[in-house]
Amino acid sequence: MTSDDTTGAAPAARPRFGANYTPSEGWFHHWLDFDLDAVRRDLDGVSALGLDHVRVFPVWPYFQPNRTLIRPRAVEQLVALADAAAERGLDVNVDGLQGHLSSFDFLPAWTQTWHRRNIFTDPDVVSGQVVYLRTLAAALADRPNFIGMTIGNEINQFAAGPHPDPDRITPEQADTWLRTVLAACEEGAPGRLHLHAEYDAAWYQDDQPFTPAQAATIGAVTAVHSWVFNGTAQRHGRDGVATGQHAAYMIELSKAWALEAHRPVWLQEVGAPAPLIPPDAAADFTEATVNAALDCADVWGVTWWCSHDVSRSLADFPELEYSLGLLTNDGRVKPAGEALARLAKEGRDRAAPAPRTTALVVDAGAGAGAGFGGRSVCAPGGAVFEAFASLVGDGVRPALVLAERAEEASHLAARGIREVVRPADVLG
User: Which SUPFAM superfamilies does this one have (predicted)?
Assistant: First the structure.
């Protein structure tokens, strides 16, 4: 699969269920004191939930501390983790450029302060990224349980505000960078599922240079990261329709920009953040979110954030980060874990959802496809977002379609859409 291929991967025969692997001991700093036995215990817990894959996170500066030094021992440890996962029936997706994790930035010293360079456009930095990503992919290319590479964890947050020191780029530069680094992954592991993943600013923020069109057309599948602390739960409450439907909304929103009617979509991150979703509501939120997501067509899989709670012995995390695990630090299954285990067991045999015959029009402005545009209409409080929630509340299962394609008969027919409505028709 080349990075230029906009047709994506074939939809999964049935949805995958997995977890973003957060080590119970040492968090992602575990790479500094790698303990394969501890990893095995963690993966035993994930496997016991009936999940089939994990997404794992090499920390970029730990693996590539100098632009021309990729630590062989770190790469060996990554392969050992993948092999341990295989022994437990788990496939592995590897995120490359961490990048950003749970409010902390991890960038190599050779991109910062005295060596400050734009991580998306500086030729030396990009060439270092290419070699690094190709090396990780090649190290795993012969492992049957290797799904493929994700470029990095929400790396678009480095490209614009509210990041305090962004590496500013244009949408055209973002496009070039994405295709370059995805090609490196393909060179390292040909034919695997290589993709990129942004946080929701790509869909909601008007001046974000990573665009919906890039998310929905570049790479093997479209990834969405759904977090209701983005204003959704604050506005609609923990039990609000929009809160339980947020992941499904993002999946359907991604389809509006996809060129192919049935491009697979991976719900790659979703979790129950306290206190907006309190512990006694986490299981219900998990069930509502996953059921809503599986009511969307062409879902490749659901990967919950995250496997294990962050230890309270570690300082300075935002409060919500300590309690997102499906399991506690000592391996006890939490209510959300029990819910996801049940949903995974039931979901693999779930019938494919019926087409969504009513489509809500997304008019984000002409620039929103390839460049800057009015994407804020899609964000919580925006007309498209609120109209979608209103329709769902009325019992409708809405799709979303770009304004410029709302009268394109062949596109609508390929998606099973028979009726088109506009936000003003819904909201009055």
Answer: (Trans)glycosidases (SSF51445)
